[in-house]
Write a structure and sequence with these properties.
Subcellular location: Nucleus
Largest sheet: none
Number of helices: 8
Family: Belongs to the LOB domain-containing protein family.
Pfam family, one: LOB
Number of strands: 0
Bound molecules: zinc ion
Protein name: Lateral organ boundaries domain containing protein
InterPro entries: LOB
C-alpha cells in the first residue's frame, strides 16, 4: 500500500505543481504537504495566501516545522473561505464562548454538589433520632403512630 502511494506520488506532480501547471521537481517544497489526491487543499491555500508567499514561508522554516505550518495555513485558508470576515477567529471566539459557558456550568454544578453534601451531613445528624423512633415503634407497635406524633 505504501509502495503504491509512493509510486503514484512519484509519477504524478504534487497538487501545488499541478495547480500551477509546472513540473514537480524531486526537491519540490510543496510535494510532501500537498499530495496529488488533495487538490483543494493547495487551491484554498493559494487563493488566500498566494503560492509565492507560501513558498517563501516554507523555505524560511526548518523542515520539521513545515508540516505544522502547512496544516495551519490550510486550516486558516479553509476557514477564511468559509467565513471571509472572521476566518478562524470566528471559530476561536465561538469556542471561547463555549468554554466560558462550560466553566460557568461547572461552577454551578460544584456549588450544587457542595449544597447537597452539606444537606447530607445535616441529615446524618437525624439518623440516631430515626433509629430511636424505629426502636420505639418496634417496642410499642400498637400504641405509636408517627403521623400523629409529628
Ligand atoms: Zn511539486
Amino acid at each position: 500500500m505504501a509502495s503504491s502511494s509512493s509510486s503514484s506520488n512519484s509519477n504524478s506532480p504534487c497538487a501545488a505543481c499541478k495547480f500551477l501547471r509546472r513540473k514537480c521537481q524531486p526537491e519540490c517544497v510543496f510535494a510532501p504537504y500537498f499530495p496529488p489526491d488533495q487538490p483543494q487543499k493547495f487551491a484554498n491555500v493559494h487563493k488566500v495566501f498566494g503560492a509565492s508567499n507560501v513558498t517563501k514561508l516554507l523555505n524560511e522554516l526548518l523542515p520539521s516545522q513545515r508540516e505544522d505550518a502547512v496544516n495551519s495555513l490550510a486550516y486558516e485558508a479553509d476557514m477564511r473561505l468559509r467565513d471571509p470576515v472572521y476566518g478562524c477567529v470566528g471559530v476561536i471566539s465561538l469556542l471561547q464562548h463555549q468554554l466560558r459557558q462550560l466553566q460557568m456550568d461547572l461552577s454551578c454544578a460544584k456549588s450544587e454538589l457542595s449544597n447537597v453534601n452539606s444537606e447530607r451531613v445535616s441529615l446524618i445528624g437525624f439518623i440516631p433520632v430515626i433509629r430511636n423512633l424505629q426502636e420505639f415503634v418496634c417496642l410499642y407497635p400498637f400504641n405509636f403512630s408517627v403521623r400523629h406524633t409529628i
